[in-house]
Amino acid sequence: MKEAVEEQQDFVKDITKMSDDFDRWYTDVVRKAELADWSGVRGMMVVRPYGWSMWETITRAFDDMIKESGHENWAFPLLIPRSFLMKEAEHIEGFAPEVAWVTRAGAGMEELEEPLAVRPTSETIVGSLIRRYIQSHRDLPKLTNQWNSVVRWEMRSRLFLRSREFWWQEGHTFHASAQEAVEEADLILGYYRSIAEDWLAVPVLSGKKSPAETFPGAIHTLTVEGLMRDGLALQMGTSHYFGQNFARAYDISFSNTSNERELCYSTSWGISTRLVGALVMAHGDDSGLIVPPKVAPIQVVVVPIFRDDETRRKVEAFIESWARGLKAAGIRYRVDWRDERPGDKYAHWELKGVPLRLNVGGRDVDAGQVELVDRLSRERRPVPVAGIAERLRVELDAFQTRLYSRAQQFQRDNTFELSTLAEVVAHFRERAGFVWAAWCGDAECEANIKAEAGGVTIRTIDPDEKPSGDCLVCGKPAKYRVSLAKAY
Ligand SMILES: [Zn+2]
Q1: Separation of 457 CA from ligand 1 center, angstroms?
Q2: Residue 429 Cα to ligand 1 middle (Å)
Q3: pLDDT of residue 465
Q4: % pLDDT > 70, the chain
């Protein structure tokens, strides 16, 4: 076992080092860990089983949360008539550059009477149809969600983060009062925070977006923003409050308790497969992925070590004697019997970020133990097989907590407080991370930050703290405390 252990130090040789080139590291890891690949259709990705499994876990967790609070799933068409899309001016203006259209069909490729948009998001078609189902205040709220994919014709592509088609959920809700709709958007933001922090182990800043960053057609947009290991922020979920904007455009009204017609208040919200990219960039290292146990397709991998058939039989019988107990304890594990050298297997599972590895050789069998190797600390510890399922559950929980703490420490180490635009510009010339600053609320000042500091944007408005001091740009009294960052 000794020689195999020595190899483990740098057995993942064929990925770019994170410190050399973060972008290439990211693409190498996503492709070599078999999360996703390009498809042959330009800018469109294939999510491979290992990546899709992580997304499935996220979808189950979130689906449970929204069902618990009374939301229902339904399905809408992929194609949206042009006339539906054009009704909300601000919305269509925001999406127009990214919409793909179906204009022809059939063997003769005949022109359609009306072009059909491939949905970039479904507010317009949901809005056009939901009015059929809402007559009175008794029909409200309508709490709906769809799991689907959408198309946005992006010019630059990046696996998981920016591809022309991605998978997501889109919630659409309709309410009888503004307050209820505002509370709905807040509730969902709390769920998104839980998905990011409790499941993906990524600490997030949450709050409102500035007007310039608000979703087209919304009154306000709420966001959760994580920090990736290159110091760039990533928007990990957004929840929008529309007031009556969409209801006005699509004539969605109800008779209220005083028997008067009133327009509905609505929300929409989404998280996408981009979250798989987030966990890669928030936790990975030079050897590859580190997957939080709660979303890991494989939480524990067992690597048998043997030189001859006799040892193999001995090791196999030993593993069989306790492996079933892992399944019964709900641990997702795999025994790697592939015909490869142990060192190559270590490299394979390290790249894939499996949290815990158990090495099992002939001497371990004699001692009634396994060697536990932790992907995060890389510590190796002998663990007795008596009570191993219980022990691994504890180890997996501890791993999840440590991963979160590490990300939290990274966020703390990369969060700064600055007071002038000159300081912000100088900061982002050298480093990245989150910078807290005071802002007057003026759009011109916001545009100045972006122009002067190389694309730095306001990521969140602090919901809790009032600013002290003056706007970092114009020096007038500040209204908001805001976090700034370069972002994906
Ligand atoms: Zn200002």
Answers
A1: 14
A2: 22
A3: 85
A4: 97
